[in-house]
Inverse folding.
């Protein structure tokens, strides 16, 4: 559905060149969107938790 919409929009805006470039540009935007979507909402293991900084454990030197 997005491919057909991008083809119509690209052709309407920039003619044949726009129609030819519409699908690669759409796929690049889709890849970026999915990357940031997964990074933000789907991958909680990589999130940096805010809060107080924990001091390092005290070690004894002998």
């Amino acid at each position: 559905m997005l491919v057909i919409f991008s083809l119509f929009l690209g052709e309407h805006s920039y003619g044949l060149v726009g129609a030819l470039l519409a699908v690669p540009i759409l796929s690049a935007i889709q890849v970026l969107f999915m990357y940031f979507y997964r990074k933000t909402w789907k991958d909680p293991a990589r999130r940096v938790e805010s809060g107080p900084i924990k001091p390092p454990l005290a070690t004894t030197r002998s």
Remarks:
- The helical segments are 2-42.
